[in-house]
Amino acid sequence: MRYIVGLDLGGTNLRIGLFDYKIQLLNKRILSTPDFRDKDSLIEIMVQSIKEIIKDNSIKERNTLGIGVGLPGPLDYKRQLVYFLPNIKGWHNVFLGKILKERIGINTIIDNDANLICLAEYYIGLARKYSNLVCITLGTGVGGGLIIENRLYRGTNSLAGEIGHIPITQDGPYCGCGKKGCLESYIGNQRIIRQAKKIFKKNITLEELSRLARLNDIRAIKIWKSVGEKLGTVLAGVINLLNPEAVVIAGGVSKAGKVLFDSIKETIKERAMPIQAKQVKILNSRLKDNAGITGAALLVKMEARNVNFYRFS
Ligand SMILES: [Zn+2]
Asked: How much distance in Å is there from the Cα of 144 to the middle of ligand 1?
């Protein structure tokens, strides 16, 4: 039996999963990303965690097919190079795949986390039910992945799908990418938390804000409605452009539930062209918090078979 390790680095958590060849999750660990302030200590903890999860499950390294890593930022997939991570400081032009392979001795492949979530939802969560699929990840950042005609669409420089960096205003607040007025600068989770603090006059977590919305707290409902309107407006454009069958909403913020989803759906109905809007299904993530690590493991399996994707670099 061959094993695969999947990593998912987010602005909040680093998740590590051990999978078998059928992409069944055998074991999982979660660490807090901000605990590792600089790039080198974050890489070090990745190396240690991968080694540990392999060792603790009594697996020999030669029985590990590969390591897949999802990263929250733009990267060059062909060269396996991380350009930068908008929400994690100190990452510029890092050949992370090569570094991990050298340190651990196992083939490693890196990709944008939203691409991996999209792969996982398309192949496993939705079992290839839809040929044209858009996936949105809502967390510290806002990511996007595109399945077009049953294939992951990467774009010219493997940078397609950056939905979070679609500008929604001429001006507006600065975004982690360095530009102004991006969707992410309005609905990234830090922004939602800051807005909630202003309204509630105290620190409030996203979980608490979701719970309050379920309890019909008018202030919490207003915040989530506004998030849904902004996301729905951008999605209306994406839907007009790509005419997808479904949009999957994943990531921590998606846990806000009905009030957020209703607001997204209403906005799309109002703002997108009628036939495309009627056709598209807005779905909650099937794989939830495991989507990123599952996609990372799946990519390793696909690359090892060389189906539709580039070879390991
Ligand atoms: Zn941006």
From this structure: 13
| Integer Cα distance of 18 and 40 in angstroms | 23
Q: How close are the terminal C-alpha atoms of the chain, in Å?
A: 24
Does residue 108 surpass a pLDDT of 90?
yes
57 CA from centroid of ligand 1 (Å): 40
How far, CA to CA in Å, does 45 sit from each of 36, 40, 92, 308? 8, 9, 18, 32
- C-beta of residue 97 within 8 angstroms of C-beta of residue 80: yes
CA of 83 to the centre of ligand 1 (A): 14
**Tokens standing for 163?**
């939905």
Q: At what angle do helices 189-200 and 206-214 cross, to 10 degrees?
A: 60
From CA 61, how far away is CA 205, in angstroms rounded? 40
d(CA 260, CA 223): 9
Cα–Cα distance for residue pair 276/282, rounded to 1 Å: 12
Q: Minimal CA–CA distance to 292: which of 2, 5, 100, 44?
A: 5
Contact 165, 179 (CB under 8 A): yes
**Nearest residue to 3 (alpha-carbon basis) of 271, 219, 304, 311:** 304
Instruction: Give distance in angstroms: CA of 36 to centre of ligand 1.
Output: 24
Query: What is the pTM for the complete model shown?
Result: 0.93
- Find out whether 146 and 242 touch, Cβ atoms under 8 Å: yes
- For the chain, the residue count is 313
Gap from CA of 173 to ligand 1 centroid (Å): 10
- Which tens digit of pLDDT belongs to each residue from 8-18? 999 889 999 99
Query: What is the number of alpha carbons within 13 Å of residue 141 lying toward its C-beta?
Result: 25
Please tell me the distance between residue 154's alpha carbon and the centre of ligand 1 in angstroms: 18
Mean local confidence (pLDDT), 224-243: 98
The confidence score (pLDDT) of residue 256 equals 84
Q: What separation in Å is there between the alpha carbon of 107 and the centre of ligand 1? A: 32
Per-residue pLDDT tens digits for 46-101: 999 999 999 999 998 889 999 999 999 999 998 999 999 988 889 999 999 999 99
C-alpha 205/C-alpha 225 separation (Å) is: 17
